């Protein structure tokens, strides 16, 4: 009887330990999840809301929004993402690099910002081939002209190269542990401006950006972990677009403003120039108001004769956000990488 009691007691202890073990959750992104831990549509959305590149770097490293979930070096903390810019003529290449160790960086994505032959600004967010596979490209169309365009083309422009590196970070930055991938997807979706349009394509428009990237690309993590490249992680898919649920249909052509009007119901401002530089902007607004007023008058006449003529309200010129000056860099002279 005594031996039976001891046996039952040991069995109870084993079962209890098993239950406790099941309650322990280990948060670790698997190799196949690397590209799932930085949503490039979120990157495109945040880029359109930033004032300048310093502000953009701050937004993608904000511990409250948690735009990134990348932990490439496996230290249990999300990697800091630094922003480095190079330019040539009318082309700016914005590179996002994960800081993974002392003098060690990994390119995760680039943003091509370029003026076309018509003087319009084109933007493409390009996933690094190691991370996302070849030709994983997103073309955002913003509902409102991003203020950051004024930063690039305005008179106060100056190149941005992040002053931060391994062990030296801005005061606002507090490292956080990565989420499980499904939870990260839920979190990051909240921070994507759905009023914009994000088109996936395989055509990179800027040859100058490719030239600049080839000269400055860092692949410190990829060179030591070739087995973790997208090509080896997903041998059946060409790039991440093949397995990612798309928020918008694929197109190789630059999305038109009419596409955004149909999908969001909102007007897209496709004139990126400041109001002071726009030609006949006042007359265009006045003509549009006159047409709308005449239409309303015609509709009223169909039902009854109005007692008085409709009054045309003078059109208001849209306000223009002034260009902003980038914030000052941190005190001291950090080592430049």
What does this structure look like?
This protein is an alpha+beta fold and 337 residues long. The chain has eleven helices and six strands. A six-stranded antiparallel sheet has the order 1-2-3-4-5-6, with helices on both faces. It is globular and about 45 Å long. The termini are far apart. The C terminus is likely disordered.
Can you summarize this structure?
The protein is of the alpha+beta class. The protein has eleven helices and six strands. 32% of the residues lie in helices and 15% in strands.
Topology of this structure?
Layout: H1 2-23, H2 40-47, H3 53-60, E1 80-88, E2 91-101, E3 104-115, E4 121-127, H4 129-132, E5 137-141, H5 148-153, H6 181-189, E6 197-201, H7 207-216, H8 220-224, H9 230-233, H10 257-264, H11 281-303
Which labels suit this protein?
single chain, 337 residues, six-stranded antiparallel sheet, 15% strand, disordered C terminus
Beta-strand percentage range: 5-15%
What's the average pLDDT? 74
Number of strands: 6
Strand and helix order: HHHEEEEHEHHEHHHHH
For the largest beta sheet, what order do the strands appear in spatially? 1-2-3-4-5-6
Which value, in Å, is the CA radius of gyration? 26 Å
């Amino acid at each position: 009887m005594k031996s039976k009691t001891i046996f039952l007691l040991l069995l109870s202890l084993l079962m209890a330990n098993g239950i406790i073990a099941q309650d322990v959750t280990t948060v670790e992104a698997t190799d196949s999840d690397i590209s799932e831990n930085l949503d490039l549509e979120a990157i495109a959305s945040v880029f359109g809301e930033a004032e300048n590149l310093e502000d953009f770097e701050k937004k993608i490293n904000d511990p409250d929004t948690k735009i990134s979930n990348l932990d490439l070096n496996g230290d249990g903390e999300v990697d800091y993402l630094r922003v480095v810019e190079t330019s040539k003529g009318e082309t700016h290449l914005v590179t996002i690099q994960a800081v993974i160790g002392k003098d060690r960086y990994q390119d995760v994505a680039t943003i091509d910002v370029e003026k076309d032959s018509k003087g319009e600004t084109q933007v493409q967010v390009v996933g690094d081939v190691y991370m996302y596979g070849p030709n994983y490209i997103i073309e955002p169309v913003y509902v409102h002209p991003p203020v950051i365009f004024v930063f690039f083309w305005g008179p106060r422009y100056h190149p941005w190269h992040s002053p931060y590196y391994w062990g030296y970070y801005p005061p606002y930055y507090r490292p956080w542990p990565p989420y499980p991938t499904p939870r990260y997807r839920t979190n990051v979706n909240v921070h994507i401006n759905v009023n914009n349009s994000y088109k996936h394509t395989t055509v990179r428009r800027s040859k100058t950006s490719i030239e600049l990237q080839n000269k400055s690309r860092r692949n410190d993590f990829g060179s030591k972990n070739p087995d973790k490249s997208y090509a080896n992680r997903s041998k059946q898919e060409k790039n991440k677009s093949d397995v990612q649920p798309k928020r918008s249909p694929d197109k190789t052509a630059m999305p038109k403003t009419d596409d955004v009007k149909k999908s969001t119901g909102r007007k897209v401002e496709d004139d990126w120039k400041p109001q002071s530089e726009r030609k006949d902007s006042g007359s265009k607004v006045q003509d549009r108001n006159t047409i709308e007023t005449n239409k309303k008058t015609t509709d009223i006449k169909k039902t009854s004769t109005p007692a008085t003529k409709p009054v045309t309200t003078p059109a208001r010129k849209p306000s223009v956000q002034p260009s902003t000056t980038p914030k000052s860099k941190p005190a001291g002279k950090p080592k430049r990488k």
